[in-house]
Amino acid sequence: MNSLLNPNPNPNFSSHLFRSSQNPSYAYCPNNQISFAARRTRRGFDRTVRSAVDWTTIEELGFPDLDVRNPSISGSYRSSTLPSPNQTVLEAQAKVCTGPTQTKPLGEDRAFKVLDTIFRSAKGELKEEEGEEVSKAQLGAFFAAMTIRANSFPEETQWSEGERRAMETFWPLLVQVLPREVVFLADPEGTIMGTGNLVGPQFVGSGTAEMRLVGALREVLAGGHLGFEEVEGVLRDVLPLGSGESGSARVSESLISAFLIGQRMNRETDRELKAYCLAFDDELGSPPVADVGSLTHYGEPYDGNTRFFKSTLFVSAVRACYGESCMLHGAEWMPPKGGITEEQMLKFMGANTHLSPLQAKTLLEDEGVGFAYISQREAHPSLYSLIGLREHIKKRPPLATSEKVQQFVRARGREAIVTGFYHEGYEESLLMLMRRRSVHSGLVVKGEEGALSMTTKSRSPNASKGLPVNYCSGFRSPIPATATDVDGISRENFSLVVDAKDYGIEPTDTPRTDRSVLKNIELGLAALAGQKGPAYDRIVLNAGVVDHLLGCSGAEDMLTALDRARDAIDSGKALSRLMNYIKMSHKI
Fold first, then answer.
1. What pTM value is reported for the model?
2. E strands of 139-260, at which residues?
3. Can you give the pLDDT at residue 464?
4. Distance from the first to the final alpha carbon of the chain
5. What keywords tag this UniProt record (predicted)?
6. Which neighbouring-strand residues pair with 416?
7. How confident is the model at residue 93 (pLDDT cuts 50, 70, 90)?
8. 253-276 tens-digit pLDDT
């Protein structure tokens, strides 16, 4: 198995994988310097791959010998260049930076501790053991949340008496040390703190972009909503994050974080979500059009899975075998969960994860591949610039919804979008965005962890209220269909709860991976190699059910669709396509 021990299979491969400064998850070192633990991990991966494909195929792939730093933890893919947030304030944000019914007011002791931490951080007096300084983004998110709660939340999630007493104690001190934009966020009209504060009412910001943002924030902080053009204009003004022409930041991160978390707390309108979804469609120009008859865009949550087996990468290899091309997109690591992502798995297996939309188009059209992955880093650099800030606002911003409904490559034939959701109500928002994309079919799934993968597990009688796991809702157009059909003539809506038992699949618990990228890969490769079990059944279920619900050709009958997925695996074709993807991602 010489190629697995070859540290430099080709120049292009080494150029981006072996520079640890660009790729902190990997660091090449000579064989005699690889740690015992790294060798053991690598041997485990080698055994998995050996059992999945024949030796010759592996040698052709040219996997490098890599010392992967802690591959068992998805969090190790977090860039070491990102500054860490202050944990005391971040824990408070988890409670107060959320919706009108989910917010949990802070108790008095916690409120005093949080405001004391903010005060001493602003003065530069935090001790080392107390963690990082409170960042500008944290200040913006926390004080915007407190203001929105005071202005527009129901009584039970407004300020607690403990929060009120803590603020009365600390505000006269905080107003002297906090930046003016944060004082504005905490009391924009001078009516909350009751100290005759004139900073908030008089604050306008500096520069055109910041002034527009401040104007929008006045509406958001009062619990109001914005129009499509207002949101789109703000986003295009302030992104990508970085420096303006003068060398200083164009807009304060406190204001940006307040805007993002404020819109989510107010529960975005359809107009606002459409602005987030469409604002950067033309960032790289018009998307290329792949010469394929059917293309499904998979919108997994960008922050990944932390508990259960993630199957979508392997499902895509299966569906590609019978002409259902699949376009995946996401990020290597994304807060708040920082879970396992498709990019982490592809990177670990040696694929090139720096593909442009045009390169992805080539892989979609390749008869031996038929699926592709694009990172947000390449497709939407403006939105990707927010990763660090997103960690510091703690809760998911509106982008966590809208980024799942993207079309980085278009198709000559039919198009569909599939995505997952967790919070009830967002399924309709996601379907609205899909219709706005004018795709032929759309599907939202309440999968495990809010992802789009359905489970073979039986529903527990103690399951939480609301929509159950495996709830599906969507629309489809019949075959044949045209673009004009999708524009309002022949779409049919559907909703159902998928029960694997109804299709002859025995209930099994979903395999746990608990943030282990390697474990997820092992399960997926073993399944594609034909090893029967929970992972195999989960891949078959998600391929066949999606084919059927999207109205794909040859999947009119559910059982037939499931058998077609099994055939793609048992024949070895699905595994071959995954291996071809890894190889071809470096050749295009």
1. 0.88
2. none
3. 66
4. 25
5. Glycosyltransferase, Transferase
6. 296, 441
7. very high
8. 999 999 999 999 999 999 999 999
| One-letter amino acid of 9 | P
516-527 tens-digit pLDDT: 999 999 999 999
| Strand ranges (E), 477-536 | 492-497
Furthest-apart CA atoms within the chain: distance in Å: 77
What CA–CA distance (Å, rounded) separates 255 from 298? 32
CA distance 513 to 521: 10
Q: What is the pLDDT of residues 104-130, one digit of tens each?
A: 999 999 999 999 999 999 999 999 999
* Phi, psi for residue 474 in degrees, rounded to 5: 180, -165
556-588 in b/e form (b: 16+ CB < 10 A) is eebeebbebbbebbeebbbbbbbbbbbbbbeeb
**Residues ≥6 apart with Cβ < 8 Å to 14:** 7, 8, 28, 64
290: exposed, middle or buried (Cβ count in 10 Å: 0-12, 13-18, 19+) = buried
> Is the distance from CB of 393 to CB of 264 less than 8 angstroms?
no
Burial track 163-189 (b if 16+ CB lie within 10 A, e otherwise): beebbeebbeebbeebebbbbbbbbbe
Q: Which long-range contacts (CB under 8 A, 24 or more apart) does 211-214 make?
A: 212/237, 213/237, 213/238, 213/251, 213/255, 213/256, 213/259, 214/184, 214/255
CA angle 532, 47, 566 (to 5 degrees): 25
245, 126 Cβ separation under 8 angstroms: no
Query: In Å, how far are 73, 208, 238, 249 from 211, measured between CA atoms?
Result: 42, 5, 11, 14
Bridge partner residues of 471 (DSSP)? 446, 497
217: left (phi over 0), alpha (psi -120 to 50) or beta: alpha
CA pair distance 367, 87, nearest whole angstrom: 49
Closest C-alpha among 451, 487, 210, 478 to residue 308: 451
Residue 574 contacts residue 317 (beta carbons within 8 Å): yes
**Confidence band (pLDDT; 50, 70, 90) for 463?**
low
Whose tokens are 């590609």? That residue is 320
Pairing relation of β-strands 414-420 and 471-476?
Answer: unpaired
> Do residues 123 and 177 make contact, with C-beta atoms less than 8 angstroms apart?
yes
